[in-house]
Amino acid sequence: MREFWLRFCRDRRGNYALVTAIAMVPLMGALAIAVDLTELNRQKQMVLNALDAANFAAARRLAEGATNDQIKAYAVDFFNANLNTIDPADVSLNITLPTSQAGGGLLTMSATLTYRPYFYPASAMLVGVDEVDAKKPVELEMKSQVRLKNTLEVAMVLDNSGSMSTKGSGTGQKRIDLLKQAANQLVDTLAQQAAQIKQIDNPVQFSLVPFAASVNVGPDNDNASWMDVYGLSTNANENFDWSTLNAANKHAQKINGIWYKNGTGWGTEEGQALTRFSLYRDMKVVTSHERIVGSRRVVCDEYRSNNTCKRSHNEYDYNDTYGPFASWQGCVEVRPYPYNVDDTPASGGPNNTGIGVGDPATMFVPMFAPDEPGNQWKVTQDPDEPNPLTYGAANSWWNDDPSSITGKTRQSNMAKYFMPRPINAPVLATGAGPNYSCTTTPITPLTDVTNADGLAAIKAAVDLMQPNGNTNVPEGMAWGWRTVSSTEPFAEGRPETERGNDKVVIVLTDGENTYSTVSSDPAGNKSTYAAYGYTGVGYNGTSVTRLFGGTSSDIGQFNYSSGNYTNALNEQMAKLCDHAKAANIMVMTVALDMSSTDAGDKKAMDALKTCSSDSRFRKDPADPSKPAKLFWNATGATLSDNFKEIANELSNLRVVR
C-alpha cells in the first residue's frame, strides 16, 4: 500500500486533478471545522443569553424574599425555557446564592455546555488528529454574575448643636449651611441613580434625624403605641412626686402603677391618668385679666386709734380667661440601659385591666423639664404692677408651691402646676420651660426619593435645620437606626431578613459629646435637664443616673463633671455602634472641623472611626490588606467632596453587571 501511494505521488500525468484531489482533503476538513465552530459559537451564545436571563430573573425573586429552594427552582425553569433548540440535558447549571442577608452580595450562575460535533471526528482525522481524541465531545464553561440591584435605606443623622453655627474652616459659610448643601447633594445623586430602576419599589429611601441635646420624634406621636402615655416607665416619674397632690377632694391615687386623678374637685377629669402628657394639657396661663366695672372697693391698710382709716388702697374684682400654657414639642428622653443602645421594640402599655404588660422601660417617655426652684409671681397681682424678684435655677418657669421648703421639694411638688401662671409672668426665652433642651426639628421618616414629592420633602426638612444646644451623638444615632428598622417606633424599613437591601446610618458631628453642668443648683440636679434627665437624679429607686447605666468602672458614677459626662456618653456610643453593626447596619461617620491636636477632638474622632463600618469595596491606603473604614475627617472646605465619596460608596452597593 505504501509503495503504491509513493508511485501515485510520483506520477506526473493528470497532475491538475491530483492537486485538486489532494487540496480537497484540507479544504473539506476546514469546512467541517468551520461548520462545527459556527454551531459551537451559536450554542455558546444561546447558553450565555439564557444564563444572564435566568440570573437577573432569580435576582428579582431573591429581592422579593423567596427562599433559596424557590429561587433555585425558578432559575432552572427560566434557564431551560430560554435554551431554545439546545437540549437541557446537554447543559449543567450551577447556582451560588449570596451568603449574606445584607445587600452587596453576588448572585453567581455557571453552566457547562456539552457540544457533540457534526463533522469534527472525521475532519479531525483528515488533518491528523488521533481518532480516539476526535470522538470526545467539546465542553465549554460559562459564568454570569449579578451584583444585586440593592435597595437602600439611608438615615442621615446630622448634628444640629450650637457649634454648627460656626463658620466652616476654609470657607465663609456656617457649618450648618455647608452641611445642608452636602446632604441635599447626596440625596440628589442617589435619587437620580434610583430613578433608572423601574422594577423595584422604593429603591432608595432617606430619613433625616437632626440631633442636638435630644431628638425630636414629632409631636404628632403623642398618642403612639410606643409612647409612655400612662407614665408606667420608672423614669417617667423621676422628677415628679404625684403624692403632693393631696387635697381632700382633689388628690392623686396610684393604681397598678398608674397615677390617676381622684376626688370630686377634679370634676369631669376625675379618673384620668396623671402623666407628663396630662401636665402639658393641665397647665394653664391667664390670657385675659379684665377688671369688672363697678367692683372697686376700698380696703384699709392701717387704722387710727379712733378706728378711722389712716391708709388704704383700692381693690377690684377681675374676670380671668385661661388658655393652654405649652404643648409637647416632640422630644423624648433616652431609654434606660440597655434599651438606649439597641433597637428593642417598645412594649409596656397596660392591658384592658390596666395592669402593665411587657417592659415599661422599653417605652419612650416624653421630655418634660421640671420647673426648677426660683421665680414667684402673685396670682392676683395687677398687670400694671412690676414683676417680683426673680432668682434661682436656670430653668425656673413656673410659680413654686409655697408649702415646699427645700429646693428639691419645690422642684418635685406637683400642686404648683395646677395653679395658673399669671398674665404678667415674663415671656419664656427660646429653649426654656417644659420643652427645655428640645431644640431640633422633628425626624423625617424613610421617604422614597425617586418620587418628586418625597425628594422635595427630604430636602425641605434638611433646609429647616437650625443649630442650637449640646451634642448627644449616641441618641441621634440610636434614632437613625430606629428609622431604618422594620419595627416601631418607625416601621417603614424593609424586613431585616430581606436580601439585597442595605440599611445605612450616616452620622456627622462637629464636636465631642456634651452634657452641661450647672452653677446654681438649689435642687441638687447636678446638670441641666436633657435627654438623660438630670445626672443627679437616680433611676428606678437607685442613686445612679441613667447616663451612667451600663458604663464601666472607668466612669465615676458620682463624678458630676462635664468631662465624666462626655466619657459616659462615649461609652454608650461605643456599645450602640457595636450593636448596630452586629445587626447589619452599615455605619458611616463624618468628623467635621475637628483637630487631631486637640485632645477632646482626637478622642471624638477616634470614637467615630471605631464606630464606622468597613468598606466593601475600598482598601485602606495605609494597609491594602485591610478594608478602608467608612470614616471621613472633613473640613468645611472638603465637606462637599467627602459627601460625594459617600455617594460613590453607596452607589457601588447598587452597581449591576
Descriptive account of the structure:
The chain has 13 helices and 20 strands. The strands form seven sheets. A six-stranded mixed beta sheet has the order 15-5-4-16-17-20, with helices on both faces. A three-stranded antiparallel beta sheet has the order 1-2-3, covered by helices on one side. Helices cover 29% and strands 20% of the residues. By secondary structure, it is of the alpha+beta class. The chain has four domains: 16-147; 151-213 and 439-517 and 561-652, von Willebrand factor, type A domain (Rossmann fold); 222-289 and 323-423, no CATH class; 290-322, no CATH class. The model is unreliable at 122-129 and 378-391 (pLDDT under 50). The protein is elongated, with a radius of gyration of 38 Å.
Short descriptors:
657 residues, alpha+beta, Rossmann fold, 4 domains, 3-stranded antiparallel beta sheet, 13 helices, 29% helix, elongated
Average pLDDT, all residues: 86
Beta content:
15-25%
Strand order of the largest sheet: 15-5-4-16-17-20
Task: Indicate the percent of residues in helices.
Answer: 25-40%
Write out the CATH superfamily name of the largest domain.
Answer: von Willebrand factor, type A domain
The number of helical segments is: 13
**Named CATH topology of the largest domain:** Rossmann fold
Number of distinct beta strands:
20
CATH architecture of the largest domain: 3-Layer(aba) Sandwich
Describe, in short, the structure shown.
The protein has 657 residues and is of the alpha+beta class.
List the helices and strands and how they pair.
Blueprint: H1 2-10, H2 15-63, H3 68-81, E1 91-96, E2 106-115, H4 120-126, H5 131-134, E3 138-147, E4 151-159, H6 175-194, E5 204-211, E6 215-216, E7 246-247, E8 250-255, E9 258-262, H7 276-282, E10 284-291, E11 297-303, E12 309-315, E13 318-324, E14 331-332, H8 407-412, E15 444-448, H9 452-463, H10 473-484, E16 501-509, H11 562-582, E17 585-592, H12 599-611, E18 614-620, E19 623-629, E20 631-634, H13 639-652
Helix pairs in contact: 2-3, 2-4, 6-9, 6-13, 10-11, 11-12
